[in-house]
Write a structure and sequence with these properties.
The chain is α/β, with parallel strands linked by helices. It has a single domain, classed as NAD(P)-binding Rossmann-like Domain (Rossmann fold, 3-Layer(aba) Sandwich). Helices cover 43% and strands 12% of the residues. It contains 13 helices and 11 strands. Helix 9 crosses helix 13. The chain is globular, with a radius of gyration of 22 Å.
């Protein structure tokens, strides 16, 4: 960050002032606002990133979004967000994007669990590495990383909620690129924190939904209306799903809490809800019939494995109707504890499941069209 030491009263050296002016002029010529009181959001055109940007603007913060050329930026523009076009796979874009930044909210990642490993390497791991190193050189006050409960891997079904002390990368599968990328991104940042003191805080949400969801809400609502959504298994298992807006609230709390450097927080639910009740709240919100059909978990998992195998062999660019990951998200018996965020950050979900689902469905129904290519992710 640009500035002079305030440790003692003294006039700055004239030569240094000239150098400083040159730096400021160069940065202004690049279109970068250099006042070191700006927050940077990556993934701002996506679901969670847009909610983080919205929350920051509401709190009176100046916000910059690092976006790819050609991205859909209408919502960010409506908020008055400063747009900086770049590519996280390019170290120079990252270096220029973080200039003058106080807090960095890294919400960008490859969406969905389908794709080649090279895509996850570039869009997730390389991007996080470049951004982390740029933030370290710039001296940002906080690097708030949006990870996922998927960083825990695929823990066995259990009744005890999983907290932040659980091991990363448990029981990884073949073709498990999404989960592996979440593990590796965290590893990159924790290594930078340990070796170079990068001030990292990690938020681990579960399956996200909300306004501006271009992946799962549309697909779920459309299939509910056609009566084609069953529960995976009996439907009485706990559902880990969370509204993007309340995750954004947690991100801001974590980024601005001095005691949260080096900490991770699960942000995964609004309280206990079963898979069946969760799906029926969506059905009710869109006027669809209640979900009554059931598919045995093992049957759904095996079928999704075969569909994935066929897709891999034929090099399908789009995901199959259902993947193992989506099956596991819906049908597993797992909970993630949010107690740490509640006690240390004072985080509480501002909306109930009913309220947040109604908002999400209403937004979708009022939208002209939303692509529906990706499976739910967490």
């Amino acid at each position: 960050m640009v500035g002079w030491s305030t440790s003692r009263l003294a006039f700055p050296d004239p030569g240094k002032v000239t150098d400083l002016r040159k730096v400021l002029r160069a940065r202004l010529d690049e279109g970068i606002n250099v006042v070191a009181d700006c927050d940077l959001v990556t993934g701002g055109t996506g679901l969670l990133g847009s909610h983080i940007a919205e929350r920051l603007v509401t709190q009176g913060r100046r916000v910059r979004a690092l976006v790819r050329p050609g991205s859909q930026t209408a919502f960010l523009r409506s908020l008055g967000v400063e747009l900086f076009e770049g590519n996280l796979a390019d170290p120079d874009s990252c270096a220029r994007g973080v200039r003058g930044v106080k807090n960095l909210y890294h919400a960008a990642a490859k969406v969905g669990d389908w794709g080649r490993w090279s895509e996850f390497q570039t869009d997730c791991i390389d991007a996080t590495t470049n951004l982390g190193q740029a933030a370290l050189r710039e001296g940002v006050a906080r690097f708030l990383h949006i990870s996922s409960t998927s960083a825990y891997g695929h823990p066995r079904d259990q009744r005890e909620p999983i907290d932040e002390t659980a091991a990363m990368g448990q029981n990884l599968w073949i073709w498990d690129s999404y989960t592996r990328s979440k593990v590796e991104c965290e590893r990159v940042l924790w290594n930078l924190a340990e070796s170079s003191r990068l001030p990292v805080t990690v938020i681990r949400p579960s399956w996200l939904y909300g306004e501006r969801d271009r992946t799962t809400v549309a697909r779920l609502v459309d299939r509910l209306r056609m009566g084609k959504v069953p529960t995976i298994g009996p439907g009485d298992n706990p559902m880990s799903a969370v509204y993007a807006g309340v995750v954004a609230d947690a991100a801001l709390l974590g980024a601005n809490d001095p005691g949260s450097v080096g900490e991770a927080y699960n942000i995964t639910n609004h309280g206990w809800i079963t898979q069946r009740d969760f799906l029926n709240l969506f059905a009710e919100a869109c006027g669809a019939p209640r979900v009554r059909r059931k598919v045995p978990y093992r049957l759904a998992y095996n079928a999704s494995f075969l569909l994935e195998a066929h897709g891999r062999l034929t090099r399908r660019p789009r995901p199959p109707l259902i993947t193992r990951y989506a099956t596991w998200l819906m049908g597993r018996w797992l909970e993630y504890s949010t107690e740490k965020a509640r006690t240390r950050l004072g985080w509480e979900p501002a909306l109930s499941y009913r309220e947040s689902i109604e908002r999400s469905v209403q937004w979708y129904l009022e939208s002209e069209s939303i692509p529906t290519l990706a499976s739910p992710t967490a």
